[in-house]
Amino acid sequence: MRRLRGWLLRAWTAVAGERADVDRDFNAELESHLAHHIDDQIRSGLSPTEARRRALAVLGGLDQTRERHRDQRGVRLVAEVRQDVRYACRMLARQPGFTAAAVLTLGLGLGANAALFGLIDGLMRRPLAVRAPEQLVQVTRSDSDTFGFARFDRMRQGATRLSSFVGVSSNRSAIAIEVDGAYDEAFMRTVTPNYFDALGVSAQLGRAFGVADTSYGDVPVAVVSDAWWRRRFGGAPDVLGRQIGFAARTFTIVGVAPAGFRGVRLEYPADVWVPATQREAPDSQMWTRGSWLLTVARLEPGATAEQAAAEASALAGIDVAVAPASAGLSDLRPDFARPLFALQLMVGLVLLVACANLASMLMARSAARGRELAVRRAVGASRGRVVRQLVTESLVLALAGGALALLVGAWLNGALLTFLPPEQRGATAALSFRLDAPALAFGFGAACLTALLFGLAPALQATRGVGRDALATRQPAAGRHTRGVGRALVAGEVALGLVLLVAAGLFVSTFRNLWRVDTGFVADDVVVADLGPLREVQDRTARLALYDEMRARALALPGVVAAGYTRIGQMTGGGIEYRLQAVGRPRPAEDPALAMEQRVSPGFLETMGTRLRGGRLIDARDGPAAPAVAVINEAFARLVFPDEPPVGRSFELTGVGADGPVEVVGLVEDSKWIDLREAPRPMFYRPAAQKDPPSATLVMRVDGATGAVMAAIPGLAASVDRRIRLGDVATLTEVVNRTIATERLLAWVSAGFGVLAALIAALGVYGTLAYGVALRTREIGVRMALGATRGRLRWLVVRESLLLFAAGGAAGALAAAFLSRFAASMLYGVTPGDPVTYAAAAGLLALVLLAAAWLPARRATAIDPMAVLRGE
Amino acid sequence: MPKKSDVWQGTLALMVLRTLETMGPLHGYGIARRIEQTSDNLLAVNYGTLYPALLKLEQEGCIASSWGTSDNNRRAKFYSLTRAGKAALARETREWTTTTEILARFLDAGGERS
């Protein structure tokens, strides 16, 4: 401890310099010392001059004493470090090619790591700008993230291990907010009135609302975000008192939230907050029905999440989970965390490859500098001093690479964020690259670590046994050992390169398999338009009439050949499952058949291209008064009617929503409904006219350009009814692509880094072979003179690259087999040990390495034996 | 003599700490004189090596320094023992005693055999 403290103080002085008065202080102390000594001497009878002379003699020289004192203060260290840095810069400037290559590889490697670090930090760690974010937890149900108000209130009242319960509305889309007669799309959060108090956030302008002034009878109030205030009101202070409207109520802005605070949800940064108590009347269904509250609370000091969960479960009467939420609530986190960690691991490996490559390059270089180092040792530099000098060079390289990495990181982070699904684009702000303290610490730390990784070994290597011998011989002091370590490094690069190529292969296969999976629909040339829920139209018949008219008008658009609608869009996530049984064939209660219901209009299945297997599809005759009918898919048929042809038979719902027997009139193929990975799911389609949908998604098959149809939809919706709040309009292909955004990200990025790693490894192989040929010039010359053929000489070089490939490849295959098991859950249609992937990766790598060996092999055969022999 | 100063560094620190413990706060010259006196002038402290040693102890947190006025009515920098310094002194005294005992026993045993 003591030693460490002393050393740190000196190092600090060396880095930061010292106060100017320290030297003066010490001079004063020396003067005082001499004065005391002289006093003593005079007292014992010496003349003042003689006394001073003797005192100085015993002190052993003023200058020497000062110098020693400065040493101990760490001042010499500072001079040496400055000198080393200057020297390092000169050495690096003298070899611009090497320096550029090194800085570039390091910049790419470190930058990729910095980009991933930014994403992971933003997603997993970066705390919300609230008071004591580390106390925050999210309270969820086992099957859903949201609670109804009744349960929420029971937990809030009864909990002792949790406090500061905050409820936040769970809606995911922006809404139109009226400002001065115009509408503006913004994220509005309906929150419990204690929101700002409980989170410990106060307004930067005006005030935040609280429990006291937010009953339904009070003037409705709202708090707006800093961003929205600037965007919509130009940051003007007179925003306080302005009125905004939505949901048929007018709210008065009373405060602006601080700039760093956008609510607790990562993907949906809030623009406006209103108290739930003022948005909905006390007799509203919102307080008695529905499940809409995302719940955040603070864990009491000393309580554990398990205790809190047990208590909340008892209060709510259902299973409740409590998880840390200091970084906010996120939809992306569960899906993205694993892929991001996989990518972080990959870019970490890329950085390792780059380090190994630099190490081998430095090793070859310092071998060539053998004489220089020997001279420095001979004139009195200690080994430690020379190592320090060499490591300083590496450090300068790494820091230059680190500076470049900040640019690369920012760019790559932006590129990675474009892979986010559109509905989660809101997270861009939270996940984007920031030059904050953790990022800088990570970048600086990673740069220093890499410098040690690639710089220390070559430095120790270069200074080993360099002494008088090295001065005496003309040959560089590179022995067998140097080449052995260099080869091991390159083999390591090959191994890591193979690991990365295998990972790339697995992820690309996964993506391709998902892309090619039999979806049970034809995605090409289909346009999907989300018509949204028609909350303002309460009458079912009127609502259905609106949807039908939309369909009819869409069919009239030029190019549209088929159209239909469904309650919930295919591949946009969801459907409702019901318990059911074949009529007259009760199933045991513990094993009810579960199937997902879709409410569709005539033309929907035709538009999607889902093929009919028997019977007929839903058509115009299935009106509200006609017999209840359904079309089922093959998985449904297998589950409910295993033994007989299903068409013509009937089933009935047994649990919630039971409405009598339904006749099966058609059988269609299975189709993917929620995501591409799902197993065939039992499904039945009911006519919208018989079971009306509260929301609808319109689908249109287009013969020709989809763009024109997409452009026409908003006008069409507006002309049918102004109350239709059009959501997303996109091609079905795009909609499907969104569901495999993660896989697409993994495939592209892993392929990119796999190729990069292979190229760096090839560079390493090239370097080590070329260096080997240069070292063996004489040997090769002699062999040629003795009659060795060109083929044999080339083989000499190529054999070495094959050996490197074999050694590195074997190690890499083992490492890949070990690591890829952890990726199993992210793969589809390919096993972690897929032999084809391994073979392809190895083949590709072998090809690249052979190409890398070609130039050195040519150079070996171009050696002029006569020139070599004359030189002997 | 310069060769010996290296050897002295370790023990010099111990002597400084011990001197400050018995004498209380003292300036550099006073410490040097006291060490010489205690050793009956058998040891000649190289004053030049004393100050780096004092600085090192200060960096390590064993002693603290402040300017004051000496008996001679001169300004001087006074060093005093810190709590960490007391602990370090106790520990090093123990270690030193053990070492010398072992060495003594070793030398005695060797003497008997020869």
Most extensive protein-chain contact, per-chain counts? A-B, 29 and 26 residues
Strand content of chain A: 15-25%
The tally of domains of chain B stands at: 1
Q: What kind of assembly state do the chains in view correspond to?
A: heterodimer
Shape of chain B: globular
Measure the end-to-end span of chain A: 59 Å
Radius of gyration of chain B: 16 Å
Computed structural class of chain B: alpha+beta
Q: Compute the number of strand runs of chain B.
A: 3
- Largest β-sheet summary of chain B: 3 strands, antiparallel
**Anisotropy-based shape of chain A:** globular
Q: Could you outline the blueprint of secondary structure elements for this entry?
A:
The complex is a heterodimer of chains A (872) and B (114).
Chain A: H1 2-16, H2 21-43, H3 48-59, H4 62-73, H5 75-94, H6 96-125, E1 136-141, E2 146-147, H7 149-158, E3 162-169, E4 175-179, E5 182-186, E6 188-191, H8 195-199, E7 205-206, E8 221-224, H9 226-233, E9 243-246, E10 249-256, E11 272-275, H10 276-279, E12 293-299, H11 305-316, E13 320-324, H12 332-368, H13 370-378, H14 383-417, H15 428-431, H16 437-463, H17 468-472, H18 480-516, E14 526-533, H19 540-555, E15 560-566, E16 576-582, E17 593-600, H20 604-608, E18 612-615, E19 629-633, H21 634-640, E20 650-653, E21 661-668, E22 683-687, E23 695-702, H22 706-720, E24 729-731, H23 732-739, H24 741-775, H25 777-785, H26 790-820, H27 835-861, H28 865-871
Parallel strand pairs in A: 6-11, 8-10, 17-22, 19-21
Antiparallel strand pairs in A: 1-12, 1-13, 2-12, 3-12, 4-5, 4-9, 7-10, 8-11, 9-10, 14-23, 14-24, 15-23, 16-17, 16-20, 18-21, 19-22, 20-21
Helix pairs in contact in A: 1-5, 2-3, 2-4, 5-14, 6-12, 6-14, 6-16, 12-16, 12-18, 12-24, 14-16, 18-24, 18-26, 18-27, 19-22, 24-26, 24-27, 25-28, 26-27
Chain B: H1 2-23, E1 26-27, H2 28-38, H3 47-59, E2 63-69, E3 75-81, H4 83-113
Antiparallel strand pairs in B: 1-3, 2-3
